[in-house]
UniProtKB/TrEMBL annotation:
<dbReference type="InterPro" id="IPR004883">
    <property type="entry name" value="LOB"/>
</dbReference>
<feature type="domain" description="LOB">
    <location>
        <begin position="11"/>
        <end position="113"/>
    </location>
</feature>
<protein>
    <recommendedName>
        <fullName>LOB domain-containing protein</fullName>
    </recommendedName>
</protein>
<dbReference type="Pfam" id="PF03195">
    <property type="entry name" value="LOB"/>
</dbReference>
<comment type="similarity">
    <text>Belongs to the LOB domain-containing protein family.</text>
</comment>
């Protein structure tokens, strides 16, 4: 007698859905491109194309690299969808600008602290 199996039904992964193929239970793509990431995957598919995404995924050495690579692919797709001119570079530019603004603010705070310390030493 066969033991009772718990069947976990999941939606087809984003890659199989895009390729219009059956997503098998042991589909490796489902780990990295689950159904919940369909929108992001479609953006990446438009940018790279599924054959290129598959080739890129084969270049990863282990599970950790594959996971990071899949996240990177999905983020690139999103970046180019949101900003078709600058893509991920636009995000980096914005982050650099935010860092520069925070550095200016931090420098101002350091100057204020220095001034307060100077006043305290002088007993003012
Ligand atoms: Zn699949």
């Amino acid at each position: 007698m066969e033991g009772q199996r718990i069947s976990v039904n999941r939606a087809p992964c984003a890659m199989c859905t895009t390729k219009n193929k059956v997503c098998r239970r042991n589909c490796k793509s489902a780990l990295y491109f689950p159904a919940e990431k369909q929108r992001e995957y479609e953006s990446a598919h438009e940018l790279f194309g599924t054959p290129t995404i598959m080739r890129m995924m084969r270049s990863a050495d282990d599970e950790e690299e594959m996971s990071m690579l899949a996240s990177s692919i999905l983020m690139e797709g999103e970046a180019w969808t949101k900003d078709p001119v600058k893509g991920a570079f636009g995000i980096i530019q914005k982050l650099k600008w935010k860092i520069a603004m925070r550095k200016i603010y931090l420098d101002e705070l350091h100057e204020k602290i220095k001034a307060v310390r100077k006043e305290t030493k002088l007993g003012l």
